[in-house]
Target: UPF0114 protein L0664_01305
Amino acid sequence: MSDENQKPESYSMEETFERGLFASRWLMAPMYLGLVFALAMLTFIFCRELIYYMPQVVTMSSDKSILVVLTLIDLTLAANLLLIVLFSGYENFVSKMDISDEDDKPDWMGTVDFSGLKMKLIASIVAISAIHLLKRFMEIGVPEADEIYGNNELMWFVIIHMSFVFSGIILAGMDWISANAKIRMKEAMKK
Model:
């Protein structure tokens, strides 16, 4: 056999292998479907909390109402986080979404790259952590809460929250350095 006959065969094997690797991205699809079920679960929990607290509205103290609202906001932020991961992750790693109703499509859909996804994730995690921490601070002095969350637990909540904040700052700094390096590289290539 000549070299010419071998090249198409090896190219064909390589192309087949690469197509198989590229098609493997669809193994992520069931995971995104699982996130849809997780979103349904959060919606159920949100509705359950709302139904539980609705009859108590008339007799609820203002501090308790703030805690209830913070709980509902916490669940909503977690659901938003799920949607960001679901849509952005699917579009970045599996396939573009062909949505026919462009008017109803969120502005950020299709524009969030992996770097933007990381920043949205860490921002959501920091917000969720801050709300959780605020709820714990509001419960200081409440005997039932003090039994569960003492000074040691509160200290760890603050440390964990600050580690999320610092992680966000570090990720933002890394993205800024990377973006500036790309800009400098483009400018150097133009010269």
Observations:
- The two ends are 48 Å apart (CA to CA).
- The chain has two domains: 10-98, 113-191.
- Residues 151-190 form the longest helix (40 residues).
- The helical segments are 3-23, 29-53, 62-93, 114-138, 143-148, 151-190.
